[in-house]
Amino acid sequence: MIVVKAPMRISLFGGTTDYKSFYEKHGSLIVGTTINKYVYNTIRYRPFIVGNESIITYSKLEKVKNVGDIKNPLIRETLKYYDIKNPVELNFASDVPSRTGLGGSSACCVSLAKSVCELLGRETDRKTICQDAIKIEREILKETGGIQDQIWACYGGFNTITINYNGDFIVKPVAISHDFIRYFESSLMLIYSDQQRTSNVIAKSHIDKDKEKILEIAKQAIVYLQNEMIEDVGKLLYQSWLEKRNLSTFISNDRIDEMIEDIIKTGAYGAKLLGAGGAGFILVLCNRAVKQKLKEKYNSNIVDFEFETTGLTHEVI
Fold first, then answer.
1. Which CATH class is domain 2-173+308-316?
2. What is the pTM of this model?
3. What is the CATH number of domain 178-304?
4. Tens of pLDDT along 31-52?
């Protein structure tokens, strides 16, 4: 049996510049990190003696004789992409709810791509898995979105992602001290808005919008991070949110606006909604005293996390 896990991510700066419609004209720069929240899957060929159907378990249970009959589009098209013929047992689990802005869908695709390649005995590197996942999600399934999530799930770490005009990318660690990374990590919070995104309309609303200011903010954020100017990083975080919010009326709503306004009034350096918009987790950067106040106010909605550096991993059992 193959066991694979792929991490979720926090995109700090540059989000939405990783859409093809933007980076093919301007390039892209993303700053962010993966965290110790994961998508997991296990896969094995199903022994013939126990049946000739594939059993697929996620939030639902599917039993099918042919891969093409799987109802879940991502699972179906990924298994078809790798030409899986024999019956399999495939199971998924996740540390956080789906469609909440942490890159879970792409982590799911990446983890499945890796597990299937291992099942088939194919030698693959991170970049190949990443490119396969991008092709499956963006070309085959034609799901609107960028390409950073697949990259984060494969590579892990506190990094910058530079995307060239042709879609090729380079992943590099942010050049800051280990001590500051730990301090920065301790100054972040994730607060769940109790909402999940259910429509592709939000992601589509990002297309063909002016995001050059978001790109410039990402470049400035690297300078502030390297100089350990955490309050200025927070201000940029909030500024980047305002710029993103202005891209479309679908990106925020009254609930999100009220929460972020309250967080800033409480004294946070900065805050932003993660993901395409409309729902999910709010990222907060603040000092220890403000964090305690926010914990008291949003106690049941706070998710503890740590940075992770390993990215996509697997084992055979």
1. alpha beta
2. 0.95
3. 3.30.70.890
4. 999 999 999 999 999 998 998 9
